[in-house]
Amino acid sequence: MRFRSYEDVIIKARSKESVNVSIAAAHDEEVLKAVKQAVELELITPFFVGNKVEIVKIANQIGFDIHSYPIYATKNEEESAYIAAKLADDGSAKVIMKGFVNSTSFLKGILHKDFKLRTGRIFSHLSAFEIPGFEHLYYMTDGGLNIAPDVLQKEQILANAIAFLQQIGLKTPKVALLSANEIVNEKMPVTVECQQIVEHAKNGRYGSVIIEGPLPLDLAISKESLYHKGLYSEIEGEADLLLVPSIEAGNILGKAITYFAKGVMAGVVLGAKVPLILNSRSDTAKAKLASIALSILASDKG
């Protein structure tokens, strides 16, 4: 099952039970707007952590009645991240959301020695894109956390993303391992790594999945490009998931989609005990709401 839009994601998330979400440094207008929408859609029950005065002030300004939800007052970013993580560690929250807090401080809270939020799996960022003119959501990993992963780390990143896609209903996701071209060339180490990953996929490492690579972006998403180049691809120009070779490639691709193609990016961090919402502070309320919906699906084990 492919989601055509974030509206489809939200509809599926609404079919699940409401999820408790702890929000680190919730004193941010766009965050509170997204949380307000998520509450109105009965997606979540929020646990606010941060500057209590500012949280209440902003909530009042946007017409968000939060009197029935807990607020944990904190003095700084580090304490906000710590308390939000503690709520997940003790089972009170099933998702942790980043508010007006630096990503490094947020992740330090998650990884604090006081908590058992690690699973042994690599932490990796999965982006989702709703792009005008395209018929379904595209996913990308990892353009947000791992800077220059080696081939073993890429396989772990890939395993996180594939497991998530299968969990949300894509029984056989189509995965493109991106490179500058489709030819394996030892002078381009990324292409050799792609070849290794494909061989492991053929041996059943990722279960029911179609993985091809190395592939340039055009061959991963365009049937016309395949036709004009006279190439065969089992993905058929219809990739669901794009594995980028480095954080720079993922960052550039993600921002190009957002700013040039007017796409909306949502995302979730996988690999921890609970899903993590690690949006940029500049992301819109729509992007944050879509991330909340994705995180609900990621937290659903049923």
What is the topological layout?
Blueprint: H1 6-14, E1 19-24, H2 29-40, E2 44-50, H3 52-61, E3 71-73, H4 77-89, E4 95-98, H5 103-110, E5 124-130, E6 138-141, H6 151-167, E7 174-178, H7 189-202, E8 210-215, H8 217-221, H9 223-229, E9 241-243, H10 247-259, E10 264-270, E11 276-277, H11 285-299
Parallel strand pairs: 1-2, 1-4, 2-3, 4-11, 6-9, 7-8, 7-9
Antiparallel strand pairs: 5-6, 5-10
Helix pairs in contact: 1-11, 2-11, 4-5
Keywords:
Isopropylmalate Dehydrogenase; 6-stranded mixed sheet; alpha/beta; Rossmann fold; 2 domains; single chain; 41% helix; 302 residues; 11 helices; 5-stranded parallel sheet
The tally of strands reads 11
What is the CATH C level class of the largest domain, in words?
A: Alpha Beta
Query: With helices defined by DSSP (H or I, 4 residues minimum), what is the helix count?
Result: 11
The largest β sheet comes out as: 6 strands, mixed
What structural category characterises the helix and strand content? alpha/beta
Runs with pLDDT <50, length 5+? none
Radius of gyration: 19 Å
Shape: globular
> CATH topology of the largest domain, which one?
Rossmann fold
Strand order of the largest sheet: 8-7-9-6-5-10
Structure description:
With 302 residues, the chain is α/β, with parallel strands linked by helices. It has 2 domains: 1-118 and 272-302, Rossmann fold (3-Layer(aba) Sandwich); 122-270, 3-Layer(aba) Sandwich (Isopropylmalate Dehydrogenase), CATH 3.40.718.10. The chain has helices at residues 6-14, 29-40, 52-61, 77-89, 103-110, 151-167, 189-202, 217-221, 223-229, 247-259, 285-299; strands spanning 19-24, 44-50, 71-73, 95-98, 124-130, 138-141, 174-178, 210-215, 241-243, 264-270, 276-277. The strands form 2 sheets. Strands 8-7-9-6-5-10 form a 6-stranded mixed β-sheet, sandwiched between helices. Strands 3-2-1-4-11 form a 5-stranded parallel β-sheet, sandwiched between helices. The chain is globular, with a radius of gyration of 19 Å. The protein starts with 5 loop residues before the first helix and ends with a helix.
